[in-house]
Amino acid sequence: MKLIRILFVFLAAGVFPDITSAQDKTNYAQDHILVKFKRQYEPVFSQNSNIQQFDNVYFDELNKRYKFVSINNVVKGQKYAPNQQSIYSITFNDTVNIPAVIKEYQRTGLFTYVEPEYKIYFEGDPIYPTDPYFMGQWDMKDIDMPCAWSVTQGNSSIKVGIIDHGCAVNHPDLKTLGGGSSRVVWGWNFFNNDSDYSDNNGHGSNVTGIAAATGNNDKDIAGMDWNCQLLIYKVAPSTETGWFYLPVLNSIYSAIDSGHVNVMNMSFSFNPDTSVGGYNLFEEAIDTAQAHNVVIVAAMGNNNIDVSGDVRPPASLASTNSNVIAVGATDLYDHRVVPFCFSSTSGSNYGSYISVVAPGDVVMGLDSNSSFTFSTFCGTSQATPHVTGLVSLLMAQYPYLINYPDSIKRIIEMTAVDSNNNPTNGLWNEYYGYGRINACRALNYSDVTSVPSFTNGVFSEPFPNPCAGTFTIKNLSTQDNSSLSYRIRNIQGEIVKQGEIENKNESDFDISRFSNGVYFIDITNLQNNHTVKKVALIR
Questions:
Q1: CATH no., domain 470-538
Q2: Is the model's pLDDT at 357 over the cut of 60?
Q3: Contacts of 182 (CB under 8 A, 6+ apart)
Q4: At what angle do helices 380-397 and 405-414 cross, to 10 degrees?
Q5: Do domains 121-450 and 470-538 have the same CATH topology?
């Protein structure tokens, strides 16, 4: 069928019975759903007496029943979005029972995914100090930045993306050394779809300043990386939290499409209700970022809970994606923050997917009003940009690591320290992960050329990658020596090859008959059915 490449906006006609239902406050939209059409069922619109029809009797009947208003191609203009034209938002003229609607649309067989659009929650809250030297930058001293800056102060070839509330783009501390041009080289407001990415909240400017305020310039504060270039992706307006995540999806694909962003800061989280629908669209975006070697640094959250059995992307994807680093927060004494400054019941989340921790209690960043100097926030939102800045410094110091996100992650983990500033030597626990980051140790890591790959420290990455025929993965083993299986999926999420791994020492996979494109390989432990490795491959 012909692929329609324009925005669909159609008004429903007629009178229909009321099918809305009273629902409790939820963490997803109540008046629309997200769908990904199967390739053979791309919507084709025809008009008959002003009634919208899509050449499918089941789809048309559901749209009529649920008071369909519009269908919008919501991930558009993004070159690397998976089968980009097939992702749509279906909007109804009132709130509906979303779980029931999702089940109905899934039954049609037209869609790869039918999901809610989840709200995102930023993980930090502000304090406005009266003293211009309030607390000082204890965080930079804590992670040994004076030593780190003696190794490198960053490089303008490295591009850092900040997905947040925008930033104070004209702040004097975001200019190059000497007060020249702005280090913000690009920005976009994906919430309003316009070019105004200024920050009228404060969260985004604070985060940006921690990661990248220009240092050694006699102004304001010093961020982690003084020379990297910045790309700003505004995904929410002035209020702090509770905004839907489609702007985030478009930001991720925009960052990939530009071919410029090396690391993205995500100081937010969302909590999918998997009984209603999955979050496959977000997983695909992170998988695609991994395929293009984009490091994702994500906040663990501020709820003071064990999230081991909980799904809170993007941080929770650190357990399966080698490009995702999940960051918790520590205080002046290198203890897990409990509570944060904004609530007596808050604290840094912990659990099975935490990677490392970084300072996140009363941390100075830039103020959103460009005439001011700094703001002070608390949260895992503030811990996260410390790691983002360290990633960009590692890329500046070791440029070849740009193509190896898993090695960058392992360097940061293997050089972390405990509360006494002693090396943890790769030991992990659920509260601190591999420990609190130490930038000086990371940038002076002596064995950077032979860093073990991510996920239990044993699996190699597929080689060669890109690959035209056969690729190899070595050291396929687990601590319990369980049997392993593999699945290879295409960019549409369809399984194109699967089986059990016979030779764990060195396994070859033939993809010579595959079409060119991006593929994802999942390695699963058959003992507990857990995915223990997820890698991306370009054919």
A1: 2.60.40
A2: yes
A3: 169, 170, 174, 175, 176
A4: 110
A5: no
pLDDT for residue 232: 97
Q: Enter the tokens of residue 110.
A: 């037209």
Judge contact between 189 and 166, C-beta under 8 A.
Answer: yes
Query: In angstroms, rounded to a whole number, what is the distance separating the alpha carbons of residues 81 and 248?
Result: 13
- The pTM of the full predicted model, rounded to 2 decimals, is 0.74
Q: What is the 3-state secondary structure (H, E, C) of 149-194?
A: HHHCCCCCCCEEEEEECCCCCCCHHHECCCCCCECEEEEEECCCCE
Tell me the catalytic residues.
Answer: 164, 203, 381
Asked if residues 488 and 470 have their Cβ atoms less than 8 Å apart, the reply is no
Instruction: For residue range 292-307, list pLDDT tens digits in order.
Output: 999 999 999 999 999 9
pLDDT for 333 beyond 90: yes
Residue 420: pLDDT above 50? yes
- Would you tell me how many other CB atoms lie within 10 Å of the CB of residue 238? 12
pLDDT of residue 62 exceeding 50, the answer is yes
Mean model confidence pLDDT for the chain: 82
The counts of H helices and E strands in the chain are: 10, 26
CA nearest to 326, candidates 350, 352, 354: 354
- Domain extent listing, the chain: 8-117, 121-450, 470-538
Kindly report the CA angle at 266 between 242 and 454, in degrees rounded to 5? 135
CA–CA gap between residue 527 and residue 534 (Å, rounded) = 17
Q: Which CATH class is domain 121-450?
A: alpha beta
Q: What is the pLDDT of residues 100-129, one digit of tens each?
A: 999 999 998 899 999 999 988 877 654 332
